[in-house]
Amino acid sequence: MKKMITMILAASALIACDDESKKTESIALNYPETKKVDTVTDYFGTKVKDPYRWLEDDRSEETENWVEAQNEVTFGYLEKIPYRDELKERLTQLWDYEKLGAPFTEGDYIYFFKNDGLQNQSVLYRKKGEDAEPRVFLDPNKFSEDGTTSLSGMSFSEDGKKVAYAISEGGSDWRKVIVMNAENRKLLGDTIRDVKFSGLSWKGNEGFYYSSYDKPEGSELSAKTDQHKLYYHKLGTDQSEDKVVFGDSEEQKRRYVGGNVTEDNHFLIISARNSTSGGELYLMDLTKKNPKLVTILNNFDTDSYVIDNQGSKLYIVTNLDAPNRRIVTVDASNPTPKNWKDFIPETENVLSPSTGGGYFFAEYMVDAISQVKQYDYEGNLIREVELPGIGSAGGFSAKKEEDVLYYSFTNYVTPGTIYKYDIEDGTSAVYNKPNIDFNPDDYESEQVFYNSKDGTKIPMIITYKKGTEMNGKNPTILYGYGGFNISLTPGFSTAMSVWLEKGGVYAVPNLRGGGEYGKDWHDAGIKMKKQNVFDDFIAAAEYLIENNYTSSEYLAVRGGSNGGLLVGATMTQRPDLMKVALPAVGVMDMLRYHTFTAGAGWAYDYGTAEDNKDMFEYLYGYSPVHNVKEGVEYPATLITTGDHDDRVVPAHSFKFAAELQDKQAGDEPVLIRIETKAGHGAGKPTSMIIEEYADIFGFTLYNMGFKSLPNQIDQKVKG
After folding, report:
1. Cβ-contact 410, 491 below 8 angstroms
2. Residue 270: CB partners within 8 Å, gap ≥ 6?
3. Residue 258 and residue 281: Cα distance in Å, rounded?
4. According to the UniProt entry, where is the signal peptide (predicted)?
């Protein structure tokens, strides 16, 4: 039986409107019928029903038909939002400005990425000298007609005369690596296929290292992949001849393996992990004829990597005995931790270092705000780098022989600006400032600290237009992530600038589970402590409401991937808290996530339902798919995902949508927007991004009661 819901939305009290515009409207929704299959799994004596498991089969005609039917309903609804086109037009206007990437040198050329404004993919240019005329080197817009094939990584040989670059088709994590002669831009016959979760690192000019899994049986988008292998490809040979360097035996079975050659081509550094946190570290001395594998770390308790070397002296970044990270030195002949010596000791702030021009640049997060210090190779502090303001700085890297580097600076109201930095005298100059129709002076960001449920102090940055009246009626998006040691630092978003200029408030808390305060902060939001993350997010919403930034009637919660889980858990635990929920590409089935693609590698953060009874019960207690209840009024929900998402398979979102549509007791809509030829998000074409944001903002404002766009402005048309 198809369920019909009629939405009655009152005109917002915020908008001055005549009697005609005050009239309510109704949109009838006929959800597609989603069949239920009697599927049950026994977990430690608890029988768990899974009626929509059939939607996990991404290759079935039934699933394909379900996707088409859901999209027909969703887009039929979105098309009726009166200002959807107006939002798309304004997003397009604001997006249409030149975006320039920081230049980098390879061989005799200076390379840089540029997007003219609305190109689906940025184009790689190069020039022979600072004053030379740039020419197109690689244009990803020509990879496919619809812009859904993207450039996803590249690496030049030591002399800069050859380049290996990876492409992603339809947003998939599976890549194809193409090798090109950089001098004449002719392709070489060294294409590598079926590459996944891989860097590309050259050994001189002879060949390069890459990582991948054996092609899985069944669906390549959802089948489990758990034995990663590091390969070496010698130029001029067939892929079938590529040698496995690490990961080919049962003893070396790891889920994530990476290889990186040091800048001087002395060492191959190998990382090996079974989860996204904690891993082993090895090296091979490439100056020797048959190099042996040398162990640096052989456990999965901490995170460490080699950032640089001087001859046999290694510089290692580690959180071993240093939750906020430190840099240590050790000789490669005996590189185990007992021989490590502090180079840049741990401080109270999290360290994220880089190197350039013969110096280390130690970037610290101070309450999620950047601070950068420059050190020499003896560990002496040279200076604190004077940054343009309060925000996020990144990109302090260059080759050792270079005397300048380029870094970017941004915050929630400052579009990303590139600065040229003189490494010796420490001066910065603007290299490129984007010409965007957005005036940062009209907006402000404030950082507040609030208490979570257990009393833990959580920082949050709230951004809005100056002069905004805190009357509890401002449309607000609360965005969060809270996992995998990921830090949410201030950054400009063209899309969110449209939200801000319409009078919207944008709030981003730094939840536990992230990396803003180091390993301890991360570990406070994992496994049996995951509820801390949801509590932090709920407390952020309560802070915004209590302080009249907004109210439940004007609050939307948003997050993607692990942040999609955050939204799913929050809306099922506290459906009264928000008016709109926007979970994107979320991990929604916590009992089965580890059975798809590389999902088992997320166990450090989540644990699995197979670990033990306590872990199962904890996951079952918050898993969004399993906590949608009959008779509950859930907020207006727009779930977004991509049919080619092989990171968090779309079945998570499919099953969550089916549960919500079946059990929703209120009048609020539950829709799922499934992008075709799109994956987890990386490489998505500009046109697709703009359309998605227009739909997200339109859905959000419409369900908050806005019959026309709030805070109208004089919109200037570019040109």
Report:
1. yes
2. 230, 245, 246, 257, 258, 259, 281, 282, 283, 284, 293
3. 10
4. none
Instruction: Give me the pLDDT at residue 227, please.
Output: 87
Give the list of residues 6+ apart from residue 285 with CB closer than 8 angstroms, or none: 266, 267, 291, 292, 294, 332
Length of the chain: 719
Q: Cα separation of 260 and 476, whole Å?
A: 43
Predicted confidence at residue 224, as pLDDT, reads 66
User: Contact at 8 Å (CB) between 298 and 239?
Assistant: no
- Please report the pLDDT score of residue 644 as a whole number: 65
**Can you list the pairs that 528-534 forms with residues at least 24 positions away whose Cβ atoms lie under 8 Å?**
528/607, 528/614, 528/615, 528/618, 530/605, 530/606, 530/618, 530/622, 531/622, 532/452, 532/454, 532/456, 533/482, 533/483, 533/566, 534/566, 534/569, 534/570, 534/573, 534/622
CA dihedral 345, 346, 349, 355 (to 10 degrees): 50
Distance, in Å, from the CA atom of 181 to the CA atom of 189, rounded to the nearest integer, reads 10
Alpha-carbon gap, residue 195 to 177, rounded angstroms: 7
CA-nearest of 3, 2, 7 to 668 is 7
pLDDT of residue 169: 84
State the DSSP code for 18: -
Are the CB atoms for 648 and 589 separated by under 8 Å? no
pLDDT of 630 above 90: yes
List C-alpha distances in Å: 90 to 76, 276, 496, 642: 22, 39, 12, 24
- Residue 661 · residue 30 · CB < 8 Å: no
- Token code pair at residue 140: 């990803």
pLDDT of 295 reads 97
User: Which two three-digit tokens encode residue 450?
Assistant: 């609030």
d(Cα 196, Cα 272) in Å, to the nearest integer? Answer: 15
Give the pLDDT of residue 26: 56
Q: Nearest 5 degrees, angle CA 583-CA 589-CA 595?
A: 125
pLDDT more than 70, % of the chain: 93
Q: How far apart are CA 135 and CA 29, in angstroms?
A: 52
For residues 413-439, give the mean pLDDT. 96
Give yes or no: 680 in active site.
Answer: yes
Stretch among 44-53, 78-87, 187-196, 324-333 having the lowest mean pLDDT: 187-196
Is the confidence at residue 451, as pLDDT, over 50?
A: yes
The conformation of residue 422, written as its DSSP 8-state character, comes to E
255 — pLDDT class (breaks 50, 70, 90): confident
- pLDDT tens per residue, range 531-584: 999 999 999 999 999 999 999 999 999 999 999 999 999 999 999 999 999 999
Per the CB < 8 A criterion, the answer to whether 213 and 261 are in contact is no
211 vs 170 pLDDT, higher one: 211
User: Per 3-state DSSP, what percentage of the chain is helix, strand, and coil (rounded to 5)?
Assistant: 20, 35, 45
Confidence of residue 714 (pLDDT cuts 50, 70, 90): very low
Question: Helices 562-573 and 531-546 sit at what angle, rounded to 10 degrees?
Answer: 70
Q: Tell me the two tokens of residue 593.
A: 């996530």
Q: Which of 117-121, 451-455, 585-589 has the lowest mean pLDDT?
A: 117-121
Q: Which of 12, 212, 561, 653 is catalytic?
A: 561
* Residue 594 pLDDT > 50: yes
555-560 and 580-584: which strand pairing?
parallel
Q: Which of 267, 265, 264, 266 is nearest to 281 (CA)?
A: 267
CA-CA distances (angstroms) from residue 168 to 67, 102, 144, 260? Answer: 23, 23, 11, 21
Give dist(CA 204, CA 132) in Å, integer: 28
State the pTM of this model. Answer: 0.90
Integer CA distances (angstroms), 576 to 372, 443, 537, 552, in order: 42, 30, 14, 7
Are 185 and 164 in contact by the 8 Å Cβ rule? The answer is no
pLDDT for residue 598: 77
Place of tokens 């930095």: 421
